[in-house]
Amino acid sequence: MVEELLTNPETRQLLEAVLQLKSLDEAAAFFADIGTVAELKSLAQRLQVAKLLQAGATYAQIEEQTGASTATISRVKRFLQYGAGGYELILSRLPK
Residues 5, 11: contact at Cβ < 8 Å? Predict the structure, then answer.
């Protein structure tokens, strides 16, 4: 999947665009323009689910705290276990 993202010109351009953002305000402006509020909330929810899974939270705790469905929690867990390592990378860089 990572290779596909890097070899597709449109997705590569999007990834390069994200790397150009220099502040939280710039990131907020870019993402406000590129996605709907619902899309961005869904992505943010997945990141929170990953954080809680890494911390050892149960599905019930995660569902209660985030409102995520068990399907979403399972999907995030699968990517934590078998994905490209993106969740682990970014979670290690975010403030605790």
Answer: yes
CATH 1.10.1270.10 maps onto the chain at: 36-96
The CATH fold assigned to 36-96 is Trp Operon Repressor; Chain A (1.10.1270)
Average pLDDT score over residue span 10-14: 96
In a 13 Å sphere around the CA of 63, the CA atoms on its Cβ side amount to 9
Contacts 24+ apart (CB under 8 A), 39-47: 45/72, 46/72, 46/75, 46/76, 47/87, 47/90, 47/91
**pTM beyond 0.85:** yes
